[in-house]
Structure formats: structure tokens, C-alpha cells
Hints:
With about 700 residues, the protein is α/β, with parallel strands linked by helices.
Amino acid sequence: MLAKPSRDLILTLSLTVTFVAATLFSLALTKGEAGVAAIWLSNGILAAMFLLLPWRLSLPAAAVCFLINWLAGLWLGNPLGVGLVFPMLNFAEAFATAWLARKACGQTMRLTSLKRVAQLLLFAIVPATAASSVVAADVLTLFDRSFNVVLSTWFYAHGLGMAIALPAVLLIARSDTVRDFHREWPEQFGLYCLMAAVCVLAFAPVRFPTPVIIFPMMALIAFRLGPRGAAVAAMMLASISSSLVLGSQETHTGATWTMLEKTRGIQFLIGINFFTSLATALAIADQKRLKRLWASRTRVARAAQARAVAAGKAKSEFLATMSHEIRTPMNSIIGFTEVLMKRGDLPEGANRQLTLIDRAGSSLLTVVNDILDFSKMEAGEVDLSPRPVEPRAVAQDTLAIVAEVARRKGLDLQFNTSGEVERAVMIDDLRVRQILLNLLSNAIKFTERGRVRLDLEVTVEGTISTLRFVVTDTGIGIPTEQATKLFKRFSQADSTVSRSHGGTGLGLAICKGLTELMGGRIGLDSASGYGSVFWFEIDAPLADAEAPPATGGMRKIGELGAKVLLVDDHPVNRELGATVLTLLGCEVVLAENGEEAVAAARDGTCDLILMDVHMPRMDGLEATRLIRALGGPCAAVPIIAMSADVMPEMVERCLKAGMVDAVGKPIQIEALHAVLAKWLEHAREAAA
């Protein structure tokens, strides 16, 4: 690519040569009493020179053009005075047009739309040529020329020439006008040759179809070669048509026209064809530009989407890894703590210390669970599982969970009901209990003395029951201006709260998300120092069936009486699992990896299999598939995933591999007992 000084020099020489050719061409067409050319293209080229070139090149080139214009006029027989007036008027007209064009279209002069072409025409070309026409007509009256004839002839010739030549040169000189219209040179050359032939046929003195045939040719060039092609075709049309028509004495119909009529006719034909084809080319160019912009933005959007998907995947992988890495040691801490707390031979001080360890482990587990739950909600992976449930039973179960904590703090835990609280409704009781447990736990956490009260109000209208839960405490309260932040993620009313009471700031955001998922509302009424009132309400359809009876708590340890295959690669996890399963009255068979698990499952003597997922040599998923492929009784044994990775994707993979359920680590004795009892009962019913 040429350097800018070289390009400017080549452009200067090109414009100068073009100006000389256009001047000689126009002067050759000068006829009639006004002594003015039928179409004057030179001034448009001169104005383009002022717009495209730096002053150090444009002024010397303009001086050369001025001299050539004057000498050419003298050579064609113009008087000395008239020969000097014409170049001066041309120079002034071109300079005025260039100055007005910069004011109207900006410094860049990029004709990228029909609007910008119209601005150039209306606010630069028309005023400049109109002013020069008046001055020319007034000056030439001194040389015995008709004022009216000079005025009209000059305006039409110079206005049309400027309107064609200036946009044409600006479009030809800028390479960005052909970005979307790149064609091989044989096609370009062929189209321009065809354009020249059509012009000759249209205006030759033969009985051939009228000049209307020019329009489809220029439209074709506009479609194929764009604005630059339309500009070149217009210049060709102006040159060929002016030469043929103004040099002929007869029209195609045989009627004789005056020179003025022929001049006006050819000017009109050139102008209408040029601006029509240019408008078409600019519209197509704009369409291509928008298409290119749309494609570019689509690529950007797809790239952003790919980055978002990758970020989401990385986030899920990070959460899964951190969940696994945190839960693995927590499994030992919480599991062995629960085992030790069930012993009755420990001193009182040891029991108190174990209680502190259990609380700390439970707090850490709550943090991990909050992060995972919020991640699930953000990903839209939380599904509701409604079943017939009594609202009173849900509230009482939740109160039973927090009752011991409230008792240790000396708080009065109250429960009030109103309405049909014992009528079964269809709700996801686990999610409702999760919301209630969070609100009650917060109330107890932030209340040092006094009471915490849960009010349950049930209103039935038709087949829909509205459940309203209200948790009231006498704790520290929340300032009104800070209350709106509480339901946002990672938000707490005061930064000192997390230091004094702990928590991630996700609990209430999770409650809000779950409530809205169930189509309900959640809110807060509070003032600093006066306690807080948290409430949420949901609508639930009445249940057709009765709610299942309460289980009455966990069955006593030792009632399971099952043989369980425990598969885990971590020795501490195997020891803890064996200890807990023994407490639950199970006979335990141990395996370190998937291969040992498949071998142990072949004899078909196990009632249940607890399978770790991530293991060396053979993971739990592959081992499950191989056990299911064994056939016979061993293939029907319930296999339960027991892993620290409890992300939804992993649970789904476990179920697809052939497992029936999943329990997370850390092991919680009550939860593990409930899952084992459930699948043992299913297995025994299937065998009966």
C-alpha cells in the first residue's frame, strides 16, 4: 500500500489531468449566444481537489488549472477579458462549494448515505452555483451577453456538472465505498464497456429505442459496483451523451429542437439517471453495511455467550470442586462428632466441647449449603415437588428443629395458628420448611432475650388455600433504610453482623428466590431496637388426598438390620461410614474402589450399596453400570450415591448411571437413616 504522501501526489496529478480533459470537453460543447458550455464538470473536480488534498498541494494544482482554463478559452477564440473572467468565476465557485461542503457534511466528507448527498447538493452546490450564476450573468452583460440567458444557462450547466462531478470524484477517491462491492476487473471492465455501448446506441442518430434504455444499465452498475460504479457511469453518460446529442441536428423522431431545448433535455436526462442510480447504490451499500454490522454484532454476541457459558461451566466446576474438597474433611468432623455425642460415657466437659464442635461444623455446613442453593437458583435448577401436606405439621416440624437452640438461649418459642391449618394442601414441604427454618434461625440468632413467635394463618377460597407465615422476634431489629438490602445476595443490614453472628448474607436471598418460585411474596416489617417481623405467603391448591401421617421421628438405632456394601476410597470416610452404619444396626462390607465394589456385589448378599462417586481406578458411575449389567438379584440392589459432590449435574449423572438416590457428605445420621430405611422398605416390597 502506498504511503500517504505518495497517494496525495498521485491524486493531485490525476485530478489535474481530469480537470484539463473535462475543461477541454466542456469548452468544445460551448454553443449559443451565452457562450456557456452545456455541462461544466471541471468545477466539481476543482472543488474535490480542495476537499481531498492538503493546501500545500491543492493551491498549486488550482493555480495550474486556472492557467489551463484561461489558455484553453483563448485557444477556442474567447476574447481576452472574457477568457480571464471565466477562470476567476470557476475558481471562486469551486472554492465556495468546498467551503460550504465542509460546513454541511463535516471534515471527512464521506458520502455514505443519500441524506449526506442531499446535504451536499442543497447546502453547498446549489448556493455556490446560484451565486456564481448571478455574478457571471452580471459581469458578462459588460460583454454584450444576455443576463437572463447567461443566468439560466450557467446555473444549469454548472449546477449539473458540479452535482455529478463532485460526488463522483469523492466516491471514486475513497476506497471505503467499494468494500461491499468488490468485483474482479474483467467484470468491472465489461460493465463499463457495456455502459459506453448503451450510451452510444441510445444517442446515436439512428432509429433505435429511446434513451430510456440507459436507466436499467445504470441500475445494474449500481447493484454490482455500488456508489463508485454509479459515479463512473454518470461521468461516462455525461461525456458521451453531451458529445453525441449536442453535435447532432436531429432528434430520433426527426423533429428539430433548438440548442437550448437539446441542452435542457440532456441535462435533465443525465441528472435523473445519475441521482436515481446513486440513490439505489447508496441504499444497497447501507443495507450491506447494516448486514455487516449485524453479522459483527452477532459474532460479538456469540463470543459473549460462549464466554458466559464457559464462565458458568467454570463456576459449576469450581463449586463442585470446592464442595467436594470442603465436605470431605467436614464429613469426618461432623460425623465423628455425632457418633461421640451419642456415647454416654464421656465426661461433662467433653460433652460441652463436642457440642461446640458440632455447632461450628453445622455453621460451616450451612454456609456451604447456602452457596450451593443460591447457585442452583441462579441456574434455574431448583424444581418443586408438591405433595399433600398439613400446614400445621410443616410449622411444627420446623419449630422442633430450632427448639433446642432457642431453649439454650433462654428464649420463649411460641406458635399460634388461625384458619384451616390441618387441611392438606399441595406444596413442596421441604422448600417451605427451608424458608421457615431460615427465618426462625435468623430470629433466634439475632435475639438475645425475650421471645420468637411463629404465626400461621390459612385462608381458603374455593380450591385455593393461602398460607401466611409470620416470624416475630424481640431482637435487635433492622433500620428501615437498610431493610430493602436484606433480600439481595451477600447483603446484611450491618457489616458488623457477619463478624458477630456469622453468615453469608445469602439466606434471605434464597428465601426470596424460593418464595417467588412458588408464586408467593416475602417481606419485612422492622425498626432498629424494636425487633423484626418477617413474613411470607404462598397460594397452594387443596389436596385431593389426605396428608401422610407423621413419622414420629427416626426409628431407634439398630432397627435397620441390613447388610450394606460401603464403597469409598478415603480410609477416614470408610471408618466413619462403618461406625455410623453399625450404630444403625447394619452389617458392613467395605470396598476401596469400583473394581472391589463390583466383585463384592457379585454374590448378591448385600441389601444396599452406598457408593462414593469420585474414586481412582474405577469411579462410582462406572461401577454402578457394571453392577446393573451383572443381571440377577444383584442387579436390583438399591445403589445410593454418597458423595461430597452434591451439585445437580452430578446427581443427574448418578441417576442416569443406575443409582436410585443420593446423600451428601458430611454424613448426618438422621438423614442417612431416613434414606436407608426408605430404600430397604422398597426393596423388601419388591421382593415380596
